[in-house]
What does this fold into?
Amino acid sequence: MQIFLSVKKMQEWAFQAKKHGETIALVPTMGALHAGHLELVRHAEKEADKVIVSIFVNPSQFGPKEDYKVYPRELEKDLRALSQLKVDAVFVPSLEDMYPEGYETWIDLEKLPGHLCGLTRQGHFRGVSTVVLKLFNICLPDAAIFGEKDFQQLLVIKKMVRDLNLAVRIVQHPILREHDGLAMSSRNMYLSEDERKNASVIHRSLDRAQKLYDSGERKSENLIQVINQMIEGAGGKVDYIKVCDLNTLNDLPAVDSDALIAVAAFFGKARLIDNIVLRAKE
Ligand code: AMP
It folds into this structure.
């Protein structure tokens, strides 16, 4: 497993691999890797000859009042975990290399960021799409793996790839969960013992909504109310609960077609997100 700290070295390595006819799969991460990330990496092995994992806490996707400074950084532990898998290269660029002085080019989608996390995290998706395009240009992947936990991010990336004709196949991976259903996240580290226990309600509330839907409930308002009650009842502070179109993220008043239920809620300082997809019934 090779470790590249510079953009130039990483790009050269990727060029060489392509020159030899090898395909590349990229797993972009911000590090503090958990079992969910590692599953994405295992999946990447199946998508291409070579696997690159990038680790970069991207400042441009954090708001001024967000957790950029305190976001967990555990590079040595991450590298140990990755060395147990079939990873060919780890890309750990410096801030200065990714955003040199005078940097001024940004990728901004018009509509998708105007929903869900984009409303409370102004500029977040501009930072995400920009850094992902940069990572694609540096690592030259044929395929890139993204988790469904960050569903809006996945849609933003897919749209960017389509709109800009990027030659990268986007592979989506289902959400990996802890034993009690809490979606794995590097931010779960912020939770106290009690908050950690309580946070599992997010998944339970989505599960409850799924059951209500299965038993015939179609009104989004009713599904949202149940989720809200459960989360607030367990001490969470809801940022949003939305029932929305799976592609556009526009609100759906009723679930008559495939729909996404997306939730963001604070437990203590940790802002956690989760979602489920409701499939339209015949
Ligand atoms: P992050 O390091 O949080 O930026 O995440 C890197 C990638 O891992 C993104 O594509 C995330 O969607 C994905 N990811 C993070 N947590 C999970 C999870 N619990 N299940 C599936 N994918 C995940």
About this structure: The mean pLDDT is 97. The pocket of adenosine monophosphate is lined by residues 29-30, 36-37, 40, 146-147, 149-150, 173, 175-176, 183-186 (CB under 6 Å). The first strand starts at residue 2 and ends at 4. The two ends are 48 Å apart (CA to CA).
